[in-house]
Amino acid sequence: MKKPWLFPVVSVIAAVITLAFVQSQEGETPPPAPAATTVHPIAFPHNTHAGEFQIDCQYCHFSAERSVDAGMPPVSSCMGCHAIIRGRNNPEEVQKLLGFFDRGEPIPWVRIYKVPDHVKFPHMRHVAKDAGALECQECHGQVEEIEVIEEVEQPLEMGWCVQCHRDNDASVDCTVCHY
Fold first, then answer.
1. Cβ(124)–Cβ(68) under 8 Å?
2. Domain boundaries, position 53
3. Looking at the 3D structure of the chain, how many domains does it have?
4. In-domain check, residue 135
5. Is the CB of residue 40 less than 8 Å from the CB of residue 109?
6. Any domain includes 103
7. Coil, helix or strand at residue 148
8. Which burial class, exposed, middle or buried, applies to 35 when counting CB atoms under 10 A from its CB (0-12, 13-18, 19+)?
9. Is residue 21 pLDDT above 80, yes or no?
10. What are the tens digits of pLDDT across the range 33-84?
11. What is the reported pLDDT for 114?
């Protein structure tokens, strides 16, 4: 015996259950992400190093011209000066540095500048002299005037980046940054 009404009834019930499930999921909010901290293990004064002493950004961020990441300095780079210079303004911060050096540990810096995961920002294409030749300050702001960097001064949003590409005659093809 055929039951021509069975398929439409089962289909309607399945659709109602699916719709109810989807709508019940929309009301739920994911748990809040843990609060990001910008407290660095060492209060590194960019205004002293990059400003007053005019140390080039790439002395510390050594791989910016040749790598996707700018790099963070190894403790041994800091110790090149701080084995002798104990820090006239903040000697307690230099003591923290010496502690990392003595323990053979890298400094666990807190990342400040971060683009979304779906965006690729290869530093070498932006700062290398034979590529973009941009100054670090164009994206990172006037770091030589900031004591301890705690937040991003620039919007680091797509529209801002696209405008920079246009201003510098760089490609605005989507695949340049999204690959």
1. yes
2. 46-72+109-176
3. 1
4. yes
5. yes
6. no
7. coil
8. exposed
9. no
10. 444 556 889 999 999 999 999 999 999 999 999 999 999 999 999 999 999 9
11. 86
**Contact 64/127 with Cβ under 8 angstroms?**
yes
Find, among 91, 72, 70, 73, the residue nearest to 82 by Cα. Answer: 91
Tokens representing 40 are 């660095």
Give 118's Cβ-side CA count (13 Å radius). Answer: 3
Residue 20 CA to residue 14 CA, distance in Å, equals: 10
CA end-to-end span of the chain: 58
In a domain, residue 93? The reply is: no
111 band by pLDDT with thresholds 50, 70 and 90: confident
pTM over 0.90: no
Asked whether residue 57 is assigned to any structural domain, the reply reads yes
Residue scoring higher pLDDT (41 or 154): 41
Residue 20 has a pLDDT of: 63
Place of tokens 């006037």: 142
The total number of residues shown for the chain amounts to 179
Residue-level pLDDT at 16: 66
CA distances from 10 to 17, 18, 20, 44, 165 (A): 11, 12, 15, 66, 55
